[in-house]
Predict the structure.
Amino acid sequence: MKKNKIKVRFAPSPTGYLHIGGLRTYLYNWLFAKKNKGEIILRIEDTDRQRYVEGATESLIETLKKIGLPWDKGPFIQSQKMGNYQGLAQKLVDDGHAYYCFCSPDILEKMKQKQIADKLAPRYDRRCRNLNEEEISLRLRSGQPYVIRLKVPNQGSIKFRDLIRNDVEFDLKNIDDQILLKSDGWPTYHLANVVDDHFMGITHVIRGEEWLSSTPKHILIYRAFNWSIPEFAHLPLLLNPDHSKLSKRQGDVAAEDYLAQGYLSKTLINFLALLGWNPGNNQEIFNLKQLIKEFSLEKIQKSGAIFNREKLDWLNGYYLRQMPINKLVKLCIPYLNQLGFPINRKKIKKIIFLEQERLKRLNQIGDLANFFFLDDLEYEPGLLFWGKTSSKETEDNLIKIKFLLKKIPCFQFKAKIILKKLNILAKEKGTGEIFWPLRVCLSGQKSSPPPEAMAEIMGQEKTLKRIDLAINKIKRARQ
RNA sequence: GGCCCCGUCGUCUAGUGGUUAGGACACCAGGUUUUCAUCCUGGUAACAGGAGUUCGAUUCUCCUCGGGGCUACCA
């Protein structure tokens, strides 16, 4: 028996950005396709014309491209008349699987409110299901707006096998007569999705768990058309720290925001892959090739996963530390540019080399390294005192340091030599007493790269100037 | 409310009818270091609860509880 080629799709609707959970769904689809030498299709589901957002489709595609997992076909855009949704809906009516419904949104809303008040499950009462031919054609001719609804059987159940959850069963008596075609002539998700999946030959529908309860409706539609039913795999949801569905209100959900903050796409891929899936061993760091090799739907988790920012930061920091310095410099420069700092490539490279081990996100580079570029530093004079060292002693030490550094010939003002000189002084005065105040007066921060390294990059003149500044600060504070 | 899904450290998770219940992030401590960071070592920390099956359940079954999703002419 020849096995059909596996085909999956990612079918987001354009809301204005690529949801990070959507990105994970895409990743899992992508990995599954690659693992099985199949094909992944990108399809944009934009049948909701009321919510249409200008440019959303483009930005979605743009972000997906930046992530760097290329799809094989598409993007196909539903609004660009892909399927003959109206014709197919009509066919369903003709075959007795669907029917015209003339109930206005107003009537529907009242129905719902009454049901809720009566503590009943809100559901369409199917009053249009048994309209006779005559009445239907009369209403149609008079131009009354209508929708087409799926005729859900009154009894029985739908049972299907989910690749992640195994057998799932729904009683048909709990399923509403789903609208397939809206009164504006556009299909709902349910119709468009099934139709497109069928005509594209999708073999595996891998999507978020929020679709699990509409799957019976979809199966009913496949059956009504007498189409073969694809495999389903419903992914666990991504959650906020408070366990609710990951939402915009609680932090970033837009993939492009993560990219803009300086998370690498390899970080995002690695991190998202492990959020709901794992290879069954202790490996945490994965490149794409390894992910493709290891991935399987069976190892996907059933329960939702909280999106853990700390671990994401750690992973990104890890990748940043692994990165060749020239590449890191290239990535950091736009962030430095943004702050208006002058770009001297050679100097920048030295700075970034020093800060590499501290960097967790590219957009932190400004905060970490701004003292190299600023003219004046703001800090409390008290920060200059090491341990219990007094103000006077600190001042004396700084004067000694200055004297020492001043004597170094300009061309020898290198970290190695500076360190050697400082160590002589440190032996006499104590390491903390020497290195600490120098660090503070150069960086203005309590944590920073080693002072001698900073001094080399800043140059002798600026270094001496900053020491002077610190001495003055101490004096002023004492008065 | 109804239907469906889920339930191992704070978080992401591994795991088995008998384990000292493992790893990672975070946290704490120690080491390296002039600070921070990196790196190394160690530590705190979990099987939601109750029945049943069993010689033995974290593991299998049921119930309870808890969390989540769906319940739109949104996807």
About this structure: Chain A has four domains: 7-82+238-306, 85-235, 323-372, 381-478.
